[in-house]
């Protein structure tokens, strides 16, 4: 596994960057939705494409060589901003905002629109899997070993609720259970075995590894 | 389940629309990657955001009320263009291009970049789940009932290969096995039980339902 990246920045700097990138990514999310749903004529599509390409060129004038990585500050604040489930810089992410309820329980409420559709009007089963894998992994603070998903019924697009609880621990293996639900109850349940990497604790500013 | 939508258009019209939407969505994919990786100054970020918002407003001047849905032509050509795994109008999708090898086998080759990163330099486990759920579901032409994923080792970002085979059928239940691999071999295996909806065959131009 590649190393996690340490950035020697203050919490004020983290807040400043959050305030800078969040509106940009939200703009890209809106564009992504509009790209799926637009019914404008070909000339307008091409004109919109030119504006998008101009924006991309501006953003690419200075950029990191590879992917974003997962960055940490000195106080351990994580910045998994490129993550496709929770990343504030990744327009694939709804983003899911995960709330901690104690050490071993995580919950989230997410609204899933047109970009997450599989069968007509329904959430793609693989999107349910993406969000459940992520929240179970956060509850475990570990990497996925095995994940079993049971689709009880289809999940309509719209507001969904996710939960994950660590239910057992044995050495570096954690068993986690979770679910996705809508206002009528559970739509998908998940159970996973998660594995804590051998070196999980950051050992110094230049030598940090972690689970996700 | 909502009904699938019939569109009375020719294969030439399908090709024309594919040629119109593909470059637009590719532009949004590039923008999404640039949004994650950019290191430009705040003024440039805000200027790029304004261009993006202008493009979105142009595209939204005429748009469908809800999600894209899954549309079919008279000859049965599917247009799942809003799909987050394979949709040519959805920038979340790499897109995965699924090849049929007989009735019950599907394969795909996909390159996964910065937008699909979980742990540093590695594909998010939930993205593996999304793509595997989708390709297994295509092999079955059915909805996911249960899906079990076994992560053998981490999947590095880059080129991956996916396979799915129907290995057993019992009534409306199909058992499908699949895998994701990189150049060194399998990284994730998947096994699923998929359920064929009771009404799967289109029964007429205005009354079509289907699995995905």
From TrEMBL, chains A, B:
Domain of life (superkingdom): Bacteria
Protein's name according to its UniProt entry: Thioesterase
Species of the source: Williamsia phyllosphaerae
């Amino acid at each position: 596994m590649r190393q996690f990246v340490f950035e020697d920045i203050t919490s004020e700097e983290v807040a400043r960057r959050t305030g800078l990138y969040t509106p940009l990514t939200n703009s890209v999310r809106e564009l992504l939705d509009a790209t799926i749903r637009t019914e404008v004529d070909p000339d307008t599509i091409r004109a919109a494409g030119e504006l998008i390409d101009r924006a991309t060129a501006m953003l690419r004038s200075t950029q990191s060589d590879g992917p974003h990585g997962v960055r940490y500050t000195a106080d351990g604040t994580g910045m998994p901003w490129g993550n496709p489930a929770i990343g504030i810089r990744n327009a694939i992410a709804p983003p899911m905002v995960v709330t901690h309820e104690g050490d071993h329980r995580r919950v989230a409420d997410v609204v899933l629109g047109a970009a997450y559709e599989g069968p007509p009007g329904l959430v793609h089963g693989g999107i349910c899997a993406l969000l459940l894998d992520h929240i179970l992994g956060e509850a475990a603070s570990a990497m996925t070993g095995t994940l079993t998903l049971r689709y009880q019924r289809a999940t309509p697009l719209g507001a969904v609720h996710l939960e994950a609880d660590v239910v057992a621990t044995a050495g570096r293996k954690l068993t986690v259970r979770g679910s996705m639900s809508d206002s009528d109850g559970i739509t998908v349940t998940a159970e996973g075995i998660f594995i804590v990497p051998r070196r999980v604790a950051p050992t110094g500013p230049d030598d940090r590894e972690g689970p996700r």
